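Quick one: sequence plus thiamine diphosphate SMILES, need structure tokens.
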Amino acid sequence: MVTMEDYPDIETEWCPGCGNFGILKAIRKALVSVGKAPHEVLIVSGIGQAGKLPHYMKCNTFNGLHGRTLPLATGSKAANHDLTVLTVGGDGDTYGEGGNHLIHAIRRNPNITAIVHDNQIYGLTKGQASPTSELGMKTKVQTHGVVNTPLSPLSLAVSLDCSFVARGYAGNIEHLAGILEEAIKHRGFALVDILQPCVTFNKLNTFKWYAERVYRLDEEGYVPDDRIKAFERSLEWGDRIPIGIFYKKEKPTFEDGFGTLGEGTLISRPKDQTLVEELIDSFM
Amino acid sequence: MVTKGKLEMEKMVVVEGSYAVAHAVKVCRPNVISAYPITPQTHIVEGLSQFIADGEIQNCEYINVESEFSALSALVGSSAVGARCYSATTSQGLELMHEVLFNVSGMRMPIVMTVVNRAVSAPINIWNDHQDAISQRDTGWIQLYAEDLQEAADMTAQAFKIAEDEEVLMPVMVCMDGFILSHVYEPVVLLEQELTDEYLPTYKPLNILDPKKPMSFGTLADPNYYTEFRYLQQKAMENALKKIEDAANEFYDMFGRYYGGLTDKYQTGDADIILVAMGSIVGTIKDTIDKLRQKGVKVGLLKVRSFRPFPAEAIKEAIKDAKVVAVLDKNISLGLNEGALFTEIKSCLYNTENRVPVVGYMIGHGGRDIRMSTIENIISEAQEVMESGIRKESQFTDVREEIL
Ligand SMILES: Cc1ncc(C[n+]2csc(CCOP(=O)(O)OP(=O)(O)O)c2C)c(N)n1
Ligand SMILES: [Mg+2]
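Reply:
Sure thing.
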């Protein structure tokens, strides 16, 4: 049986009080709940404070380039679909530099859980606006305040008919772990956007700010099976901010599209060149 | 640095390298700035944002974007309609721009960009070497390397002047070593607005998108025309050889500071051993030379300021009497086991009478500290080469064998 001891604490380099600690704990709890041992799990990250998370996990990990987590994870999943693949990245990483990858990952629907540490700021580079920073937020680069309309990642995902769309809050670890458990169990691409207070660089969206606003969808009897309702909820952002599972839909995964994967993972297959040679010969 | 008369101490202020550069950009009066934050470039764009916020740069927009690819692409659009454009990046950001770099130079846009040199991933490393810029060698950007904070700032104004010259019209990268120059505080003279206005006149673009005089940028050039585009870019690079010298000389006349044109020489007159290098390492080498000169070692330095265009003639002339040349590169061409400057210096000598032995040292990768003792070792090995010939043509410096 997999227990929390399988995912031991490792010394971190995050600021004391960072929302990332809650996310780290929730990921470990979720993996234990779904019974996945470290060797069965792959965590792919980009670059950023969020991108450091794999350093603090005992399992297979991969540090990719800033913004490029999703193509990397898709590649790993295709070659070894037995792995439970999670990606972690920041809001800058996933929605900015890697924004185009997100759109196409949702379209492809690989069985991957994409975890976004959404602190509404670039943490690692010390506090510039990200795609989710609030209008008017002042930073050293956005000296007059942010003028670009913030991205609503959940609306984007729902509009693309993403097969699993959820939002968690780093300040509610139990609830977040539950969402992550569902996301990992879900067959298909799961986007989990996590409200993550950045205690050092985001003085606007603090623990207090979030705590005053978040409410749980499940406590209002919300059922995540309707795309239009999900879209409506995804637009809710202000005095009340919903957390929980917004939308869930079973559909064929990226891997389902490859009949050949039914015979086992690509990496475990004998490498038979003869067919290729025959094919090449046929052109000669 | 050579100064006309005394260094104007009373004008000096102690600032961070990034601030000195941001200030230099400011007085060059850019119209559009676009950049994406990345360590160790961030302080430059934060500085510029502050200037814009404080109303200190008139007629200038800072475009916030989601990646370096977008940053440089936005400038392509702005430059095409006649704006003076600036960006800054490093490492992963510069590598991501690769495709756009070709676009900019192919369309002959005189964009200036500071590259705060940093190592490239993987493994991720935020410290200094030159691999990022060197890897963009063939994209058609002029590449200048600064030795210290003052030069990085002054070179920025020179870069706009060179880039916008109608006989050049090529983009320029001003390369400065990450952290070593970008994050260090040193006394510098900030460029005076009035002098800079005189030095760098208002940008008068030659070809722009204008409804009154329609034209196209970046259209297809089929095999009948493509070669000529490349040929003309090469000609522009050749023209730049002189313009880089001119820009440095004019700068000296006006501001009273000079660091060399294409190259600069230090104690090379009677030197048997000549070291060749680019960037901040030049300071360490000069100190080492001073020390060894006292012991009677005839050693000198050739500092290369312009890596592109490659100043072959200036280099050949500078090393013509040397008995051995040692080239220090903060980069490596993997699979060749040579740094780029070393390879190119060797190659420019090949069809000449000069058979001077040239040896290469790849040094300071990913921010590995370069000490005077390391430079001394290189010099003593160069002495051996002088006496008994080349034993190792090109090698890594300070490899930690114990962790391999
Ligand atoms: C191509 C490229 N551009 C820029 C960077 C510099 N960089 C590293 S992390 C980061 C953004 C960090 O913000 P986010 O993704 O939100 O993660 P956080 O640190 O907030 O967790 C940036 C711009 C980089 N590594 N690569
Ligand atoms: Mg972030």
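Residues A 47-50, 66, 90-93, 117, 119, 121-125, 130; B 36-38, 68, 92-93, 96 surround thiamine diphosphate (ligand 1) (CB under 6 Å). The two ends of chain A are 56 Å apart (CA to CA).
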